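User: Show me an example of a complex going from sequences to structure tokens.

Assistant: Sure. Here are the input components:
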Amino acid sequence: MESNKYIRLGPIAKAVLKEIVIIILIIIWLVPIYAMIINGFKSNTAVVTSKALIPTLPLTFSAYQEAWTVLNGPLLNSLSLIVPVSILSTFLGALGAYYLNGLTRSFNSRYRVLGNIIFVLVALGTFIPYQATLMPLAILMASLNLLGSYGGLLLSYLTFYLPTGALLMSVFIAVVPSYLIEAAKLDGASDFSIFFKVVLPVSLPGFISTLIFIFIESWNNFFLPLVLVTNPSSELVSVGVRYFTGGFGTLYNASFAAAVIASFIPLIIFIFLGRYFIRGILALGSGGKA
Amino acid sequence: MVNISVKNVTKIFKSKNNNVIALDNINLKIESGEAFGIVGPSGAGKTTLMRIIAGLDVPTSGEVLFDEKVVSKDGKILVPPEKRNIGMVFQNWALYPNLTAFENIAFPLRNQKLPEDEIRRKVQEIAEILGISHVLSHYPRELSGGQQQRVAIARALVKSPSILVLDEPFSNLDTALRDSARALVKKLQEKFKVTTLIVSHDPADIFSIASRAAVLVNGKIEQLGSPIEIYNNPVSLQVAKLVGEIVTGKGVVTSVDGKKVIKCGNLIFQPVLENSINESEEVEFGLRPEDVKIAKDSKLEGFELAGKVVVKVSSYSGGVFKIVVSPLENEEIELYALSDMPMKEGEVVNLFYRKEKIKVFLKNYYLKKTELQS
């Protein structure tokens, strides 16, 4: 009676259906990237006269050249800021997460309560929209005479991304089997050597996932540098791409080229470290063994 | 080496709705250099007791002393596990997956900041003893179960621990490997004369390694003694079952010629019963498989005849035939005996037992003394 309500599919039909869904999703994701790349190769006129999804000949590199000239400075600025930000956020976050983990495992109930309180604060630090606290932060930086300086930027980014690192890493460290930590303790290891020799290597996929996540998030962050960077020469790439969009007109081909250049580094990182990203996610389901 | 005292240790696991008493006022003394076993069913608190001794958990109340020095007391750890010099072999071995076998074994030595050549020498020495020298460069995932276990044992022993703790160390090995692993551990224990604590649900582990053992049931020590003592004189039927195979049956105390005997169908068992036991009381009796025989003969040296039984089924395991029999007039009662030959179903044979070995349990499961007098 009820069983005829649904159409039953054979295994081949099911597989084909799955593939079709995947292909559709891939197309949806790839179309903007495709448009971004081909439109960067169009001339200034072609980009407004031709259809967005159809490439035109001849290919011109002028837009890329133009974008590169503007962006090479910001690109370097971004790299020199975002690389330390993501490494420090993830590493210090991992250290903090290990400490939190130790607190929540403590035999002393007061430490466990303290651990939970800190964890809530860390989560709050991650989930409060940074736009809400950006102005007070800018004022704080100004009063410290750090506004616009490299150190001030680094500190500001860490304020927002360190809690993220701690939160993500505490999820990954929680799945490191507790018997490994106990074995290391019985083997006489100090907390630092347990962290460096056991916890960090075992949660490495999670560490790299967190690193990638923070890198991409902070690389793409637009609002932070918009407010906190006061000197044009220390402009970051996420703000730099805006250069081609002005009040009087938009250089579409250069905008597209700039977008390609700006997303190149995160893309490369994801391609090379993406397998760790997947493994990190998988590790959550398998007790850290992936 | 170190002696271990456990005094009035109670462990309560608190949760919102109920408190679970994992250990209930445990008192133990493990002598220096002794191999001590803790046996019990799962959930009895064996692992909790072991973890409290190792310092991985705290007693809710009571204290643990190493050489008369308090290491844990009333919910506090006074000497942390890393300072207790304990070598532990975990149930799943807990090898560091990111380190080679060599580095796994060297790990405790590196924490002691020993010079590199001494580490190398010590690791190689212990690897030699354990026969794993050829796999030192392998990662744990590249080792067989037996090799992983040996690496875990090597890691536990390499630092010359004061106490060696083994948590169900053989349960992850296949049967063929288990016996040689037990022999190896016993040999090492004797060689290093290290105070050893072995926790297992398998009595074979305790028999092969421990010189004294405690049977833990529901968080309480039910019996303390040498494994063979516990095997021969268990305080309860549950303990009897925990430390080995036992053939059990129910019977009624009856008087025959002025002597109290146990009647089980047409079978008559003649233990010497305490006077306090009343006639027509229903009791359980137990006999170790080696104390029961069935044969067609009417007499058997050293054995007493209980009566005639009928063979129900013969099965084979571990080199002997297990023959399930029932008293002639009572099919519901099932007993078994081991035999070196299979027997035909329906065959009527005599059941013999060793009179001095029969154990009698009252309904409350506790043994009534069966002292040999007659």
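The lines above are the inputs; the final block is the predicted structure for all two components together. The radius of gyration of chain A is 24 Å.
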